Amino acid sequence: MRIRLLLSIMPKRARSSTMESQSVLAKAELSTSSRSTGAPTKKTRHDTKFLPNKIATAENAALADYAPPFRKLEELTKVCEKLKPPTGVCIVYWMRMEDLRVRDNRALSLASAQAVKDKVPLLALFVLSPQDYIAHDRSPRRIDFTLRNLQVIKDTLAKQHIPFHTTTHAARATLPEHVLSVLSGWKASHLFSNIEYEIDELRRDIKICELANQSQQVKCTFVHDRCVIAPGKVSTKEGKTYSVYTPFLRAWTPHLTDKPDPLARAPNPKPNDTSIHDHPIFGPLFNTPVPTHLEGFELKPDDVETMRTCWREGEDVAHEMLLRFLYTKSRTSQFAEVNPLAEGAKEPQKDPKKNSRIGKYNEDRDHVNADTTSRMSPYLSAGIISARACIRATMELSEGKKKVDVSRDTGIGRWVQEIAWRDFYIHVLANFPRVSMGRPYQEKFANVQWETNEEQFQAWKDGRTGVPIVDAAMRQGKKMGWMHNRVRMITTMYLVKDLMLDWRLGEQYFMEILIDGDLASNNGGWQWSASTGVDPVPYFRIFNPYTQSHKADPTGEYIRHFVPELANVRGDDVHQPSPNLAKKLNYPVPFVDHSEARARAIRRYKNPGEK
Ligand SMILES: Cc1cc2nc3c(=O)[nH]c(=O)nc-3n(C[C@H](O)[C@H](O)[C@H](O)COP(=O)(O)OP(=O)(O)OC[C@H]3O[C@@H](n4cnc5c(N)ncnc54)[C@H](O)[C@@H]3O)c2cc1C
């Protein structure tokens, strides 16, 4: 029944190849997507015949949870370690979408060490996979950001005489064979990569390991790099994965002092010999261009400008953003679509531990009317800076104290806890693949009855629900490709509990517009608000969007900026304009009464399957 209800409206992200057959949903995705005013478009898909299946059956999700591909990859990696490949003429580092950096990159560092040991050159590879981007709802903004960063990486590596080759491979099912054939053409003996924990990516790497083990030509090494503490390391006494954050954090913290040191900086790659430029195959790789755009993922012209202003590419920028957060104070003039690193946007603080953005993070982090948070998420989710580099920097701020501050009472400690949330959701993703498969973590809520209302869903996307804080946030997302955490929580809760629309619709939409779209954190956030996830908000604790609005935007400046209809409204009215005022200002009135909607949501969650 639920599926049938969804069919009429539901465009859904797919992560797994063992999905229920729902090509109808996929077709709906192509026809009813979020491509209206202002949002980046996917006008021409790279491959319109590619219609990924959408939601896994409960049985398939349970099977995947029972034997997570992540565990299988770990086992296979051990087998690979024993392989003795024939002598090759190069070593290859395969960069993927979540480790777009040269500094402090474990797989790249290991690949370089192997190249030095074998006295052969190091080569770097990136494969653009448009079908994966369609299946995973990658936003054009994220793809554009990736391409911009790849260009920086190509230039950086070229200075070290390391060629960086970017190719495009259309059919994602044959990506493993494609990568191995590139390696074979280059006569590579070793392949190094950082692990990606999404189910499709894990299955792809498993296939590569299996093929490489069969052929005995290439030794594959997949290493943990994305988290501060690797998935699998933090477990309960019974060896299980934590599904509640607080005990996870308690168990996570002692691992920070493990040996080998999880915070240690991975050495930078060593340069190749300059003679590589004369090599008949490797030399020309220096000249292969990084594409400036990918068909089907082009940005709208005005979006190009905003993305380049708000989210500049490159590792240096990521590190500068971090320093800005650690040493300068937040500004009301910086909460919106401006260059965060513009001259005058920063002002070093005398006592940063108290006065900087991080110093005030504990008190201010939920305020959206200033740039109170780091804005590191686009850089962290694309791996342009490592999470461990962020933690190391907080230690330097704590006057070189050896221990990492994880206290709830300090700004630094609170911020480190947010990085731990990031780890938490990645650990969940690795160990409970069901969250990659469109299933609720808590299967008991799979049958909650959703409304099917395209008009309301569209109004939510467009920021025209008549609830100012929701509308401001949705317009911020559309404009900037980024939203503050607090308003992500408010807007998601509003879609799910007030409008009673399926959380997966919103999850997909966020992926399509955000530049920091990341399956683990996005799914974690959505399932938190939908009360279906690991450690979620209880279903009966429903945000009142108007109370939340006062707390998040105490001055109303954020609403006035993003909702120009309300630009001249002062006082409480900006949070909840009366119907008369709304009419006068050509601003919508809400679709639902909050207390009635709240009662409806509680009823439906209490009795899944019933209206
Ligand atoms: C519904 C929903 C969807 C979200 N989708 C994403 C997403 O696609 N990508 C993404 O990176 N984050 C996502 N988050 C988490 C969070 O909202 C953003 O990481 C944060 O707003 C980014 O701003 P910042 O870098 O200034 O964060 P800061 O407050 O400065 O935090 C520092 C870093 O900690 C991590 N972090 C902070 N809060 C969380 C959290 N709740 N869960 C996981 N990691 C966290 C991020 O890497 C962030 O950059 C989502 C949250 C919700 C509620």
UniProtKB/TrEMBL annotation:
Binds 1 FAD per subunit. The keyword Methyltransferase does not apply. FAD binds at residues 361, 373-377, 415, 418-425, 516-518. GO terms for cellular component: cytoplasm; nucleus. Residues 18-39 have a biased composition (Polar residues). It comes from the Eukaryota. Residues 90-228 form the Photolyase/cryptochrome alpha/beta domain. Residues 344-369 have a biased composition (Basic and acidic residues). Residues 18-45, 259-279, 340-373 are annotated as: Disordered. Pfam families: DNA_photolyase (PF00875), FAD_binding_7 (PF03441). GO terms for molecular function: deoxyribodipyrimidine photo-lyase activity; DNA binding; FAD binding. The record marks W450, W503, W526 as: Electron transfer via tryptophanyl radical. Gene3D superfamilies: 1.25.40.80, DNA Cyclobutane Dipyrimidine Photolyase, subunit A, domain 3 (1.10.579.10), HUPs (3.40.50.620). Its cofactor is FAD; (6R)-5,10-methylene-5,6,7,8-tetrahydrofolate. Keywords: Chromophore, FAD, Flavoprotein. Transmembrane segments: none annotated. The keyword Transmembrane helix does not apply. GO terms for biological process: circadian regulation of gene expression; entrainment of circadian clock by photoperiod; nucleobase-containing compound metabolic process; response to stress. Belongs to the DNA photolyase class-1 family. This is Photolyase/cryptochrome alpha/beta domain-containing protein. The lineage of its organism: Eukaryota, Fungi, Dikarya, Basidiomycota, Agaricomycotina.
